[in-house]
Amino acid sequence: QVRLVESGGGLARSGGSLRLSCAASGSADSIYVMGWYRQVPGKQRDLVANISSGGSSYYSDSVKGRFTIARDNGKNTVYLQMNSLKSDDTAVYFCYGDQGPGGMLYWGKGTQVTVSS
What we know:
mainly beta, 7-stranded mixed beta sheet, 4-stranded antiparallel beta sheet, 11 strands, about 0% helix
C-alpha cells in the first residue's frame, strides 16, 4: 500500500509561482512513475506532468516551458515547480503514483491551486 500526501497549493497572482510537493509513504519504492494531474469542476482530470524513477519526464503542452517536475527517489517525493502561472492553471492538483504494468495506481487527495488575474 502507498499513501500520497500533497502540499504547497494555495493562491498566487498571474505570473507568479507555486511549488507543489507530494510525499509517498508505505511501499513507495515500488512506484515507477510519479506525477500530477489537475481537474476543474465539471471537466475531466488532465495529466500535467510526470517523471519516472529513472528521471524521464513528460509535460503537457499547456505547461511546457513553465512547469518543472523533479523527483527525489531517496525521499520518495515529487515536486512540481509552477512558474508564470495563468488563470487557466486554476484547478485541484492531484499527485499520483504508478507501479507500472500489473501494479497499482495510487492517488493523493488533491491540493487547490488558484491563480488570480
